[in-house]
Specification:
Blueprint lengths: L10 E3 L9 E8 L5 E4 L5 E5 L10 E5 L21 E4 L14 E2 L5
Antiparallel strand pairs: 1-2, 2-3, 3-4, 4-5, 5-6, 6-7
């Protein structure tokens, strides 16, 4: 609900190797962890997943192209494979890391 997102602002991502991932991400809803998930106008998503598969506990913010579950407590995209286009292991607070941080991004052949 919009009331749940009071105080959460859009974030701007820059500096990735994919133009599709640079730009404004708008908060959409809170996930079961209490953290917001974000979506860009082109459908790109950004969210925190505490355990994206059945083996590893990564506690990571990830760029994805799928809408995450707001009720699941792990494997928010439902693929059980940690499939993502970029991530950072970060669990301080309820927001993605702000400022300059090093993310792991799949840049293909670049």
């Amino acid at each position: 609900a919009a009331a749940d997102l009071a105080g959460y602002l859009s974030i701007t991502v820059s500096g990735t190797c994919w133009d599709d991932w640079n730009g404004e991400f708008v908060p959409q809803a809170l996930t079961a962890s209490g953290r917001p998930w974000y979506k860009k106008a082109n459908g790109a998503t950004l969210y925190w997943d505490p355990k994206c598969n059945s083996i590893d506990t990564w506690n990571m913010w990830m760029f994805d192209g799928q809408t995450p579950s707001i009720t699941a407590t792990s494997n928010l995209d439902g693929d059980a494979s940690c499939g993502h286009l970029g991530y950072i292991q970060y669990e301080e607070g309820n927001l993605p890391p702000m400022g300059t941080h090093t993310w792991t991004i799949d840049c293909g052949d670049e």
